[in-house]
Sequence to fold (304 residues):
Amino acid sequence: MNPGVYTYTVTGVAPCTNASATVTVTENAATNAGTNGALTVCSNGAAVSLFTQLGGTPQVGGAWSGPSAVVGGNYDPATMIPGVYTYTVTGVAPCTNASATVTVTENAATNAGTNGALTVCSNGAAVSLFTQLGGTPQVGGAWSGPSAVVGGNYDPATMIPGVYTYTVTGVAPCTNASATVTVTENAATNAGTNGALTVCSDGAAQSLFAALGGTPQAGGAWSGPSVVVGGNYNPATMDPGVYTYTVTGVAPCTNASATVTVTENAATNAGTDGTLTVCSDGAAQSLFVALGGTPQAGGAWSGP
Fold:
């Protein structure tokens, strides 16, 4: 039926006239809060309208209630608690109030930490990439980069330096989160292997570097019984013994050292030329004592 004025008439028995009375019907619209809805948000997401999550055709002008106070009809993950939020539209009597709910689920935002850096030595041990991230990264993410990452570690023996990315997969509507570790690999120092050098006490200067084994790096420093000049051992001015070659490492690479053991043999001395005049019928005379200087004993003679 339609609202309006309804007339009630009683027919009179003559000479009585008919009698009438009216009922004016007013029809108030029923309240409509829509149908129940659901909302899933990320803990670091923007505020979202609760009203638009209701189903049906809810009336505007209702009021929200729930675990947190609702401001502007929005759910803000930064300040509110998830749960059941109720939208109530007040009815005009005799219409009753109408209510519908929006159930809010809040998924935790992903956290891959903040960017970090790692410097290793080319001959160093494997190092955890995860511990190089800043902040409080979540475990369970995946690494990608110039080399395949095994066990979350960077291994200088098998991997290439560069930018390695850690990605944590978000639970919708949370997006994935990523952070990087930039790996720098310094070359290990190489001083070669130990060597030996035997010289004569009156010999020329010789290179200590050339006496090292392996493939030593240039640019190191020598130390030993005597000061080393130009990387050479000079028998005229230096003492024999153990000379150490040290190459300074670029952190975190350590210094490297190798030694050259110098043995110096005394120079031979046959004295200086001499002369001997004898008589054909004279006694035998020593050729050795006819030599000048300080000849060593034990030599051998040759002649006519």
In short: The chain has a mean pLDDT of 94. The two ends are 159 Å apart (CA to CA). Residues 36 and 100 are 5 Å apart (CA to CA).
